[in-house]
Write a structure and sequence with these properties.
233 residues; alpha+beta; BirA Bifunctional Protein, domain 2; seven-stranded mixed beta sheet; four-stranded antiparallel beta sheet; 5 helices; 28% strand; globular; Biotin-(Acetyl-CoA carboxylase) ligase; ligase; BPL_LPL_catalytic; DUF4444; ligase activity
Amino acid sequence: MTPSFPPLFTGLDAGGADPFALACAKAADVCDAGLVTYDLAHDRLRAAVVLAPEVPLREAACMLPLCGVGFQNALGALAPPEVAVHLGWDGDIYVNGARCGGLQMAASNDDPDKLPEWLVIGLSLELWPPSEETGLTMDATALYAEGCGEVDAVTLLEAWIRHTLVEINAWADDGPARLHRNWLAVAHGRDTEMTVVGRQGTFIGLDENLGLLLKTHEGSQLIPLTDLLTEAT
């Protein structure tokens, strides 16, 4: 079944290729914002969306947690009520406490003060575990191993884009306060020790641009979302 997206969004089947890399390539070739690339394999859902921010990268990078909130809302509406979905600050997605997938981000430039020509957010979600011995990897899981066998991948992809669009519109109208609040409500690892982009400390909060505040032995450190930028391979 071919996914259906809201107006101004267009779908492109990656045909087994990496949708994130494809979206970055299309964005670099000046495609329209709203392109959704996807690859729906039997064991994994991969997708990416091209965005065209109108604010500097420092602010635009909040599209990573925003797309996470959109995904959390989408899966939360489709999964059984007992299934818990949480988000890691680095883009990881957790289902019932175990990592099930993640989000990644690339942009046309890495200067926080510069307006990016494009921004791409990629999603990868494990649908089936690599083996039936799921107990061997307690910190990793797959969607259908967590009581979500009725969640159709196409429906989930469509819902992710719809819910993300709602969050984008709210962010554009009201600023980051709602996103700040909604993301913290489903944050994974608050007040716990973690290592993020090579720095270790206790997750104590977010700044106004959803940068991570870590309490370390040397004091508090701020890790901006722009530190999570990756390059498509």
